[in-house]
Design goal:
Cofactor: Fe(2+)
CATH architecture: 4-Layer Sandwich
Pfam families: TauD
Radius of gyration: 26 Å
Structural class: alpha+beta
Bound molecules: fe (ii) ion
Family: Belongs to the TfdA dioxygenase family.
Helix content: 10-25%
Number of domains: 1
Strand content: 15-25%
Number of strands: 16
Organism: Wickerhamomyces pijperi
Order of helices and strands: HHHHEEHEHEEHEEHHEEEEEHEEEEH
CATH superfamily: Clavaminate synthase-like
Number of helices: 11
CATH topology: Double-stranded beta-helix
Oligomer: single chain
Low-confidence stretches: none
GO molecular function: 2-oxoglutarate-dependent dioxygenase activity; metal ion binding
Length: about 425
C-alpha cells in the first residue's frame, strides 16, 4: 500500500492581508482628464437656435457662424476643488448703485407709459421702457427700484447682448463663470446661455413630464457661495413658447418680517454655509466624491442701498448654521425655507413672453422655475435667453439696520 502525501499551504489571515497590501501598493490612481468638461465649442447647437434668438443676434451683430454656444477655453476650466475655490477668492471693489438715486425715480419713470406693481410686496413691471436706451442716471434709479421691489420686468425689449453686458458692468462685478456656456465670442463671457436645448444635450436623457426633476425647480438664490455673492441679476428671454416656463420670486425682506422679534434676534449675527451648484474633484481626497465650493454668509444681511434686513438662506444652497448641532440647524433651516416658499403673499409668479427682461436682486430674494416645457414626448419647447449676474458687496449685517416694515412704519409697536 502506497501513501501519497502532499503539502498544501493553507492561507492564513495574515497571508491574505499581506497579499492585499502588496497589491494595494502597486495600485496607481489616475484621473481620466478626457472626461472633464470640454472648453471651446464642443457641440455646435446653432442650427437649433429659435428664430427670435437668431433675429436678435443678427440685428445686434452677434456672430454664431463658428458654432454656438461657447465654453471658456480648456486651460481655464477648473478640474479640482481648490482651483474652483480660488476663483474670485478675494475682495473686489464694488459700487452700490442706487444708493444716491432719486427716490421718486423721475428720470426712469418719465420714460415709462405705465408703472405696474404686480403684488403688494414684490414685483414691478415698467411698460414702455427700452433697456437698450437707458443712460447711467436712469440705470442708477433702476438699481434703487430693484433694491426696493426685489424684481422688475420689462416686456417687448430689443436688447443687444452688448448692452446687457454693459448694464451688468454698471450694476456690479460681472460674474464670469468658470464652466458655463456663453454666447459665442470673448466679449460675451459674462452672459450665460439659458437654453432648453443646451440643458437637454447636457443631461443626455430625454426629459418627460414625469421624469423632469431639475435643480432650478428648487427655490434658490444664485451664487451665494461666492466671496461676493450675486446682486442684481438680469435674465433676458429672447424666445419663449406661447405658454410655460414661468418663474416665481419670493422676497427676503418680507420673509424676515414674518418672523417674531425674538426669533429675528436669535438669527441676527449668525452665519450659514452656502454651496455652489457645480462640484469638483478634491485633489487630496479624489475618492471622497465631488466637492462643492462653500463659504459662510450672514443669515440676516443688510442691503447696502435700502438698509433693510433680509433673510439669506435657501433650500438649494444652504447646508447648515454655524455653531448649532446638525439636528437644530436642520429644523431651523427647514422652517425658514418654508416661510420663503409657502408664503404666497410675498411672492410673484411671472409669465414670460419672448423679448422680456427680468432684473432681480439675489441678495434679497429666492426664485424657482416652473419646468412645464416638457411633455411625455420630451419636447423641451425651445426656450432661450441670456443671463448676466452682477456680483455685489461682501455680505454684512448691520445691527442698527431696520426691517422693511420697520422702515416703512408698518409695524410701529410690534411686541409679539
Ligand atoms: Fe437661478
Amino acid at each position: 500500500m502506497t501513501t501519497i502525501t502532499e503539502t498544501v499551504s493553507v492561507p492564513t489571515a495574515t497571508n491574505i492581508v499581506d497579499e492585499i497590501n502588496k497589491k494595494a501598493e502597486a495600485l496607481t490612481l489616475s484621473i481620466d482628464v478626457t472626461k472633464r468638461v470640454q472648453g471651446g465649442i464642443p457641440l455646435d447647437l446653432s442650427s437649433k437656435l429659435p428664430a427670435a434668438t437668431k433675429a436678435r443676434f443678427d440685428r445686434h451683430g452677434l456672430d454664431y457662424s463658428r458654432g454656438y454656444p461657447e465654453r471658456p477655453t480648456n486651460g481655464t476650466i477648473p478640474l479640482y476643488h481648490h482651483e474652483a475655490h480660488a476663483v474670485r477668492d478675494y475682495e473686489i471693489p464694488y459700487i452700490a448703485r442706487g444708493k444716491d438715486a432719486d427716490p421718486e425715480f423721475k428720470a426712469l419713470f418719465a420714460k415709462a407709459t405705465e408703472v405696474k406693481h404686480l403684488t403688494k410686496y414684490i414685483g414691478t413691471e415698467l411698460v414702455g421702457v427700452q433697456l437698450n436706451d437707458l443712460n447711467e442716471k436712469e440705470l442708477d434709479e433702476l438699481a434703487l427700484l430693484i433694491a426696493q421691489r426685489v424684481v422688475v420686468f420689462f416686456r417687448d425689449q430689443d436688447l443687444s447682448p452688448k448692452k446687457q453686458v454693459e448694464i451688468a458692468e454698471f450694476f456690479g462685478i460681472p460674474e464670469i463663470h468658470p464652466i458655463a456656456s456663453h454666447p459665442t465670442g470673448e466679449e460675451y463671457r459674462s452672459l450665460r446661455v439659458i437654453w432648453s436645448e443646451l440643458f437637454k444635450s447636457g443631461t443626455g436623457k430625454v426629459e418627460t413630464f414625469r421624469r423632469n426633476k431639475v435643480d432650478t425647480a428648487v427655490w434658490h438664490s444664485d451664487h451665494p457661495h461666492e466671496f461676493q455673492p450675486a446682486g442684481i441679476t438680469h435674465l433676458h428671454i429672447d424666445s419663449n413658447p406661447e405658454i410655460g416656463g414661468d418663474t416665481l420670486w419670493s422676497s427676503g425682506y418680507a420673509a424676515f418680517d414674518k418672523l417674531s422679534p425674538a426669533f429675528q434676534k436669535f438669527l441676527e449675527g449668525k452665519y450659514a454655509y452656502q454651496t455652489s451648484l457645480h462640484a469638483y474633484v478634491d485633489k487630496d481626497d479624489p475618492l471622497g466624491g465631488l466637492k462643492k465650493v462653500e463659504r459662510k454668509q450672514p443669515i440676516v444681511r443688510t442691503h447696502p442701498v435700502t438698509g433693510w434686513k433680509s433673510l439669506y438662506v435657501n433650500r438649494g444652497a444652504t447646508t447648515r448654521i454655524e455653531g448649532l448641532e446638525p439636528e437644530e440647524s436642520k429644523i431651523i433651516l427647514d422652517y425658514l425655507y418654508d416661510v420663503y416658499e409657502k408664503s404666497l403673499d410675498i411672492q410673484v409668479r411671472f409669465r414670460w413672453t419672448s423679448g422680456t427682461s427680468a432684473l432681480w436682486d439675489n441678495r434679497v430674494s429666492q426664485h424657482s422655475n416652473v419646468h412645464d416645457l416638457v411633455d411625455e414626448q420630451g419636447d423641451a419647447g425651445n426656450r432661450h435667453g441670456t443671463r448676466s449676474v452682477s456680483l455685489a458687496e461682501v455680505p454684512f449685517f448691520d445691527p442698527k439696520s431696520l426691517s422693511q416694515r420697520e422702515a416703512q412704519g408698518l409695524d410701529p409697536k410690534r411686541e409679539d
